[in-house]
Amino acid sequence: MNGEHKITSGHRGRLAIVYLRQSSMAQVRQHTESTMRQYGLAEEAVRLGWADGDIMVIDTDLGVSGRWGVAREGFTELVRRVCTGEVGAIFGIEISRLARSNAEVARLTEFAKITGTLLIDADGVYDPADVNDRMLLGLKSTMGEVELHVMAGRLLEAKRAAAARGDLRTPLPVGFVHDDLGDIMIDPDEQVQAAIRDVLSGFSSCGSAYGVVALFAGRRFPLRAYGGAWAGRLRWGRLTHARVVGILKNPCYAGAYVHGRYASRRTVDPDGTVHTATWERPRDQWPVLLKDHHEGYISWAEFLANEAKLAANRTNAGARPPREGCALCQGIIMCGSCGKPMRTNYHTDQRPSYECSSRADRLTTPTCRSVAASYVDDAVAAVLLAALTPEQVALALSAADQVTDRHARVSRAAELTLERARYEADRAERAYHECEPENRLVARTLENRWENKLFALAEAEAALQTATEALPTLPTRADLEQLATDLPALWDAPTTSDKDRKRLLRTLISDVTLLPESDCGKVRIGIRWHTGAVEELTVARPVHPGTARRSSPAAVELVRRLGPTTSNADLVVALNAAGLHTGDGRPFDIDAVQWIRHVHKIRTPSPYADGEISVCDVAGKLGCSTGAVYDWIKKGLLRARRGGGNRLCIAWDEHVEADCRTMIEQSAHLNPDPAARRRKNPAPASATITSADSEISVTEAATRLGCSIGVVYYWIESGHLGARRGPGNRLHIGWNTQVETACRTWIDQSGHLNPQARRSKPRQRR
After folding, report:
1. CB 97 within 8 A of CB 67
2. Which 3 state secondary structure label does DSSP give 119?
């Protein structure tokens, strides 16, 4: 080996690392000679003087690509140990192939130069500290990179040429196989064919990938495995949404050969992490597209239609596919004022309404509307049914044929499963009978296998019976012809789902627009058909039940005009004479007239005649409470009559006023004047208070004396304590030291207020 003299004892005193790398697991499995040669470098290290304990093999990167940006644990470990200075030499088949990127090789070489690490391959020993060796390593790395580029270019061009002819063999999706000549053909397994055809026909009928998954509930779906232990074998499992979308978007099922449909893109994060992602090119950028290349399950036109349906189902891209709700125009109704789509809002009672989406952004115009969905849906449905002519019967019969065919396919799938299970059971039975009876070790295994196949056969028979019984009974063609002639009955049938009505509506109508309308009681609807024709109709909004029960404007106007001067009884006569009725259609009565007065704030005529006033007016003139006036009327001291509205009407003049004031002056409750009380209830001279320095309230007097306010009121009513009525009919007590002393004397002499005084009085003997 060239350059062995560059190896010193210092190098041999450190580790010798043997780094192994192969780009893929396929190379590891198939190119075993390369792997053995790399492991053999450990023996070369021993020959060059390293002890067995100082040789380290790093093989964690076997099957990992060496291109730049790919995380490789083994290479990272190698760089770490070189940087710590514990590596004396690095062994590899070719040093320039430690990594596919020259940048990483140059970086490792620079670290080896700093730490004094040698690089050894089959050509010799390289010292990165030697400029000649470093230049040679760089040249070999560049040449290796160019060689890889040329080889990859040749391989890619050969693949493109074969793909342009349609001869490049690639893994086929489930449902297709390669024949002996390498051509693409439909899988001869009828059960696989039935499963693929049911997926495509199911999507054609329901228009949703999730709907297809629901149709396959409890049913298995095939998968052809490529690579690994299951390579080339057929496996059965659950159908998922991703697999349905993969089938619908794969042009191979339409008989087309495509190459370059997907491409890879690499991106770099700010921290230097490299990511590789796969993206699908647009159809016009596919390098190879050969239509009618092989027999397909559907035509190219059907493939494009399925692709358009999938795009129309993507709500995150702005599509509005038909949903299961009862709002018929959901997704195709627009606001004619701001031009934005209208949202469908389901209230708590499941009544839908159409609301302008501008409300969310507070960008509504004065004419943006919200309307109950039933008003618009009923009008649009009526126009749609009127447009369907008897010529559409042929289309309905064609759809019925498709339903019948789909039912037959469902039964056919179960029949094929049963046929396969019967074949497997017969095969297991033949294998068991061909076994020698004496060879019990084999016979027992074959017997168990036969029993398992018989059990699977019984399950398949039960599944076929269940599938047959679950299918609904289809109407006869005569019944369909009779039903198709009455499309409104078909539209209103309970078996017709809301989603089916929406799909039928969208086959003829492109969109619906809610046009601006100044009259809130009407709705203007614009309909645009797929033919380009435009139709406009106006629908009256139904009157709310509460609004419908309101009295007519004519009745309200009559009450408003005559109410201030006419009694309720006379208004009842006038309203009924004019032929007017209440909102419920009944003749007017007193209660109905009073309700109109209350709602519309219409005043009643005054119940008082000339010279008559109310109880409140009397109390205001006399400065007393209304209770006193009511008491006088009750006792007959004041005359009054019942007027309109059951109100008391009091005839008032100067004589009546004088009599009332006399009653107030003579009342100890209404007039606490000491002179008046003495005339009615004379008190001892020692208890009479005639002068005061200030006035206080009853509550304040009770607080100063430490008694209840009831005691103070008693003294005032009995004439012991003087008080007057002030504003608000409040009692004001004249107060000074003499008054307070007299009050305290009454408290001391009272047996009720002062128990000590009660005990000091001598008991009277009987």
Report:
1. no
2. strand
Residue 457 CB-half CA count within 13 A? 17
Q: pTM to 2 decimals?
A: 0.51
Q: Is 23 a catalytic residue?
A: yes
What SS3 state is found at 577?
helix
Contacts (Cβ under 8 Å, ≥6 apart) of 156: none
Strand partners, 732: 724
Give, in degrees to the nearest 5, the angle at Cα 528 between 526 and 533: 115
Q: Per-residue pLDDT tens for 683-696? A: 443 344 444 458 89
- Per-residue confidence band for 228, with pLDDT thresholds at 50, 70 and 90: low
pLDDT, mean of residues 230-252: 87
Q: CB–CB of 745/737 below 8 Å?
A: no
Burial class (CB in 10 A: 0-12, 13-18, 19+), 354: buried
Average pLDDT over residues 133-158: 82
Give the residue from 89, 75, 84 showing the smallest Cα distance to 16: 89
From the list 684, 678, 661, the residue with the least C-alpha distance to 749 is 684
| Distance separating alpha carbons of residues 189 and 197, to the nearest angstrom | 13
pLDDT of residue 95: 79
**Residue indicated by tokens 């909004």:** 541
- CA angle, corner 475, sides to 470 and 476, nearest 5? 130
The neighbour count for residue 37, using CB atoms within 10 Å, is: 13
Better-scored residue on pLDDT, 519 or 429: 429
The Cα 454–Cα 448 span in angstroms is 10
- For 623-704, where are the E strands, in sequence order? 641-642, 648-651, 694-696
Q: Of residues 507 and 107, which shows the higher confidence score?
A: 107
The C-alpha angle 712, 713, 719, rounded to 5 degrees, equals 90
Tokens of 289: 């597209």
Query: What one-character DSSP code corresponds to residue 283?
Result: G
d(CA 196, CA 239): 11
pLDDT digits (tens, 9 = 90+) for 26-40: 778 887 888 888 888
> How does pLDDT run across 525-536, given as a tens digit for each residue?
889 887 778 888
> Is residue 41 within 8 Å of residue 93, measured between CB atoms?
yes
Chain CA centroid to CA 521, Å: 33
Q: What pLDDT is stored for residue 689 in this prediction? A: 41
Active-site choice (9, 23, 201, 353): 23
In angstroms, rounded to a whole number, what is the distance separating the alpha carbons of residues 164 and 442?
53
Residue 169 CA, chain-centre distance (Å), reads 46
**Which residues, in sequence order, are CB contacts of 548 under 8 Å at separation 6+?**
583
Which DSSP helix (H) or strand (E) runs through 196?
helix 190-206
pLDDT at 257 over 90: yes
Q: How far apart are CA 574 and CA 565, in angstroms?
A: 13
Q: Which of 50, 20, 24 is nearest to 37 (CA)?
A: 20
Q: Are 380 and 330 in contact (CB under 8 A)?
A: no
The DSSP annotation for 285-341 comes to G-SEEETTSS--SS-HHHHHHHHHHHHHT-GGGT-----SSS-TTTTTEEETTT-PB
> What's CA 282's distance to the chain center, in Å?
31
Cα torsion for 348, 354, 355, 358, to the nearest 10°?
140
Q: How far apart are the first and last CA of the chain?
A: 153
**Nearest CA to 478 among 407, 400, 402, 389?**
400
**Rounded distance between C-alpha atoms, residue 433 and residue 422, angstroms:** 17
CA dihedral over 718, 719, 721, 726, signed as positive or negative: positive
What is d(CA 736, CA 696) in angstroms, rounded to the nearest whole number? 10
Q: How far apart are CA 499 and CA 522, in angstroms?
A: 28
Bridge partners of 695, per DSSP, are: 734
